[in-house]
Amino acid sequence: xxxxxxxxxxxxxxxxxxxxxxxxxxxxxxxxxxxxxxxxxxxxxxxxxxxxxxxxxxxxxxxxxxxxxxxxxxxxxxxxxxxxxxxxxxxxxxxxxxxxxxxxxxxxxxxxxxxxxxxxxxxxxxxxxxxxxxxxxxxxxxxxxxxxxxxxxxxxxxxxxxxxxxxxxxxxxxxxxxxxxxxxxxxxxxxxxxxxxxxxxxxxxxxxxxxxxxxxxxxxxxxxxxxxxxxxxxxxxxxxxxxxxxxxxxxxxxxxxxxxxxxxxxxxxxxxxxxxxxxxxxxxxxxxxxxxxxxxxxxxxxxxxxxxxxxxxxxxxxxxxxxxxxxxxxxx
Amino acid sequence: xxxxxxxxxxxxxxxxxxxxxxxxxxxxxxxxxxxxxxxxxxxxxxxxxxxxxxxxxxxxxxxxxxxxxxxxxxxxxxxxxxxxxxxxxxxxxxxxxxxxxxxxxxxxxxxxxxxxxxxxxxxxxxxxxxxxxxxxxxxxxxxxxxxxxxxxxxxxxxxxxxxxxxxxxxxxxxxxxxxxxxxxxxxxxxxxxxxxxxxxxxxxxxxxxxxxxxxxxxxxxxxxxxxxxxxxxxxxxxxxxxxxxxxxxxxxxxxxxxxxxxxxxxxxxxxxxxxxxxxxxxxxxxxxxxxxxxxxxxxxxxxxxxxxxxxxxxxxxxxxxxxxxxxxxxxxxxx
Lengths: 332, 335
Ligand SMILES: Cc1ncc(C[n+]2csc(CCOP(=O)(O)OP(=O)(O)O)c2C)c(N)n1
Ligand SMILES: [Mg+2]
Prior knowledge:
The structure holds two protein chains of two kinds.
Chain A: E1 4-6, H1 7-21, E2 25-29, H2 45-49, E3 54-56, H3 61-73, E4 77-81, H4 88-105, E5 115-120, H5 135-139, E6 145-147, H6 152-164, E7 169-174, E8 181-183, E9 197-200, E10 205-209, H7 213-225, E11 231-235, E12 238-240, H8 244-254, E13 257-264, H9 269-281, E14 290-294, H10 303-306, H11 313-324
Parallel strand pairs in A: 2-3, 2-4, 4-5, 5-7, 6-7, 10-11, 10-13, 13-14
Antiparallel strand pairs in A: 1-8, 6-12, 9-11
Helix pairs in contact in A: 1-6, 3-4, 7-11, 8-9
Chain B: H1 16-41, H2 56-63, E1 71-73, H3 79-84, H4 89-96, H5 131-144, E2 150-155, H6 162-173, E3 178-184, E4 187-188, E5 191-192, H7 193-196, H8 201-206, E6 211-216, H9 220-235, E7 241-246, H10 266-275, H11 278-288, H12 294-317
Parallel strand pairs in B: 1-2, 2-3, 3-7, 6-7
Antiparallel strand pairs in B: 4-5
The structure holds thiamine diphosphate and magnesium ion (MG).
């Protein structure tokens, strides 16, 4: 039996292993050392690596983000810890104008190998400024890579690959999943960015889910299976680069696709994936590609309201049923 | 004409060669900028560019105190820093013209010129955008036990950006080997510095416990003497430091800023050029001290002008990047 560890432990292990392997790797952020972050993901690292490599900063996100860019350009491999994904807005200049463009603008002479680890996910009753899923914001910027682990297994393999990548990589962990366990091998492994994973095979409908939306898709698939509908579930694992080939192959196979991502639905990840499938598999589709994102509202505090804003197993399963039944074909 | 005071204690190890190189570097910046301005006026350069003319003693005084392995970050007004840190004319002009032989294969242009072989981490089109990068480079040096120093150049206008105060705080907390070099040329675009900067700029650095100095940015020896001292001390772990360099830009904010009477007078410009020109002042000092003759200086000037002219015509004839380069270098490791 393979051991099971939490997503939090998986991230911690990945970082520790890479810091042991490569002494240019260091961590920087707020309360990352003794506190091990508010989510305790990094606990124990400062004891092993010391305060020179696990660096607590003042509350100055643009400052330490910018410093990570400079350190990366000159030979280090910083891992920036951004306490909440919502704070991405504070570091946008350093991330999108500096880190993302430096390699290109220098004609390939300068590299910015850094990891920005942060989080996403609503339903923690944390209200609008601590609940956003902002992956589309950074996925829009050429030069950045964006990974979205959907379990402890992915979290470890993607983190290790991100640390070794020569580009700025943003990793979004779902803060509701830190305590979720999954089988994670003891042996070393990496998950290359840009490789989707088929989690469940099926021939009737494809459910594409990022991060914790994988659980929503798997839940829906389970329910549909009881009704005789075979859903295929795919986790893209990184959205930049995107494993378009795997997504298209599944679309060709099932002819029906639903895309689920926790970012706001408009102008987001689901729109991008749906558009690519429409462009490249249109004549193989039996129905329009459907999308589920978060509602286009700031995340409300009240639990009765907040729960309405995120995609659910019920909604995805219901849509899949209608797709398979041919109820969503508008063409005359 | 104001004169540079004779420097009684010459910097240790300095000699005629060092002085002449400093002079030559200042002349090279002036010649580069004159040529770049002409390329703009002749409509042969894409886009706009910001001239460093008048501020040469700042970049040269500081960069002559640095080793090649030391790093700098530069600004939108960055040609001077690039030349002073050791760049060559041909790849610089090629970059300005978007040619493939440019330092950044034509993808950066004037406002992003970078020359990592000489430690220039790049110009930056975001005012204040490189303050984090410079401080991070210094953090890397400290973490890796390297003894290089990073100088962060920025303008008086950039002192209004919050990032400066975030990174100075951390640099001071962690004693990082970084020198913040504020080029106070009296203007932030079309606005006088006193209208955008409350209180004292030096006092802002001092509030973090950072040793801060103001220096005449037209006096290359004064700049260089101070910079050598601070660089040596930063190398020993006594940083960070802050320098405010009082200087003046001769041209408009950018090459297209021609009619500027609404924000500064012709008399003001003439006074700086006639009495505070860093090259003239240093040239006079060199001849007075017997380091060089008028003819020596003229020889340097004409050699540099010839080099610039040759580089310009080389760059004008040079090839543009192949269109296949448009998707190249978005990601490292992918060609
Ligand atoms: C963040 C940002 N805001 C505004 C601008 C437009 N801008 C370019 S240069 C400049 C003035 C900068 O003044 P200063 O820092 O004193 O540098 P100087 O041009 O005098 O060398 C401004 C406002 C910009 N490039 N970036
Ligand atoms: Mg200015």
